[in-house]
Amino acid sequence: MIDSNSIKKVFGKNIHRLRKAKELSQEQLAEIVGLERDSISSIETGRAFTSSEAIANFSNYFNIEPYILFKSKNIEETDKIKDLKKEINRSLSDCDENELKTIYNVINALKK
């Protein structure tokens, strides 16, 4: 069930992911979108929400449609992530079955 707390948490998690993908500090993002650093922290942790003006600023800066910020599934990948995935796929192309199994197990262990 969707409630206001879950919306704030999803929004905050997406802002956090996007900020990290751009390798920005909370202070840097705050300056870009016209908020205080403490506001970014509160938004990212789901303790607070923000204005429609700030949502527009986030959307414009990250070059995404506003609805993306509210998606509970993984948000659209940044170019950096897409490039990394392509490079990983290229590296895997010449692996045999045993190597692929080992790599798969390592990935699963890292994700836990």
Cα-atom radius of gyration: 17 Å
Structural class assignment = mainly alpha
Q: What's the overall average pLDDT, rounded?
A: 90
- Could you name the ranges where pLDDT drops below 50 across 5 or more consecutive residues? none
Overall spatial form:
elongated
Q: Report on the biggest sheet.
A: none
Terminus-to-terminus distance:
26 Å
Instruction: Please provide the ordered H/E string of secondary-structure elements.
Output: HHHHHH
The percent range for strand residues is under 5%
Question: Helical stretch count?
Answer: 6
- The number of strands is 0
- Percent of residues in helices comes to 55-70%
Structure, explained:
This protein is mostly helical. The mean pLDDT is 90. Helix 2 (26-33) packs across helix 3 (37-44). The chain contains 6 helices and no strands. The protein has helices at residues 4-21, 26-33, 37-44, 52-62, 79-92, 97-111.
